[in-house]
User: Fold these one by one.
Assistant:
Number 1:
Amino acid sequence: MSMKIIVLAGGLSPERDVSLSSGSGITNALLSLGHRAVLVDLFYGMPELPSDVDTVFLQATPVEPYRVSQAAPDREAIIASRTEGESDHIGPNVSALCKAADIVFLALHGAEGEDGRVQAWLDGLDVRYTGSDARGCALAMHKEAAKAAFREHGILTPPGILLEKGQPCPTPRLPCVVKPLSGGSSLGISIVREQAELADALAAAFALEDSVLVEDYIEGRELSCGVLGERALPLIEIIPNEGFYDYHNKYQPGAALEVSPAELDERTTATMQAAALAAFHALRLKVYARIDFILARDGSFYCLEANTLPGMTATSLLPQEAQAAGLSYAALCAQILALSLEK
């Protein structure tokens, strides 16, 4: 059955460009499946609507793929460029477009899309949407709360401390990882190997948020496991050409080698997939997510975080894992849509 679908992307998150790249891919996939899908930027909206909103869906056409730039977008410049909107964060006519759709496919990344606020707003409009609900998103996005949930359910996660802006930082064990509490796409993350590097790392993280996590650094292999419904997808291993899996290495083609299925023995694979499902349930997530791990040299593995709206760009991990499971990009979008309609 053909549906009217708004693909909501963009917004004001530092991951805005990634979101638009995901959104363009999703929109074109949904169109290829016969749906009437329209890509809408949460922040810019659609300044003018026809008298019959359904015309927007009837005129739906493919969009140009969006390429992620090497640097995060200039948020202040984007804010200055818009002259009107429904609110500070929502552009003109976004509510009307979402209410006219059969479902909203969320392609947002970062705080605006993954902290539960947009989900709560859509709930208030009585609009169906893809993915987890507001409660699950809020829990997963707050990294310290998520780590507490992991510990409560027996899921190993790196120890760390939570800092607020202006609070002195106790001397951490080195090396350590400094990261914003609720960010994504590795923005503001630093690996600190010497005490002299700590101040700059904290400044970079606090530039994005007022709360920061300082975690023990676990040396090992970077892996991720997508969850689709009640199914754990094949694991994927991320091997950056240099450094760690930061913003550049995530979204610039060729910057990292990504192997799926990951080259692990069957027991380790099965155990990590079970841990991914356990993390998914611990955070009360729905439909789909991606769970990130570090596999230490001694064979133990640590759950780092859950992504409730994982990237759907051309280089993103979840589509690669789905491909390894025999699901094309369009088939993955179709399953996310079907599972979301069932929730």
Number 2:
Amino acid sequence: MKRFLVLFVAFVSLSAFAQSGATSSSSVKFGYLSYQAAIKSMPDYTLAQQKLTNLKEQYKAETKRVEDEFNMKYEEFLDGQRDFPKTILQKRQTELQELMNKNIDFKNTSREQLAKDEADIFAPLYAKLNETLAKMCAEKGYAFIIDTDAKSVPVVNPLMCEDINQAVQDALK
């Protein structure tokens, strides 16, 4: 929302400047696009998505393995708890608690690592898209380009803006 507000203020300022001091032929114009649609149209998107899916599957498999290990040890504990002397019972309880804590730590760490890996995998795509948008902005003379994915721009004036979705997708191929 803050980003939209900054863009809106910039647009109003530029519009006021254009109306007050410029001729009618030099008006402010801008482009708009769906950033996510542009990313998804890139040839490397499928490869990046597959890398991310593979990582998710690896983390999922490891999570299942450690859960199965915990469940097996817990069942063994339940089966033998009546027969264990007090010190062995306490030792096993402590082991189970430690294993459960390690599993929780692993889930949290893997979730954080997966988010970092996702950002790293998609970073080159975002960089390429941003370079393409900067080039297009300069070539077409846009004051700025708006990402419509956030739904913060419900209406655009077609006299002052241009839908650049297809042009960006073509430039990225």
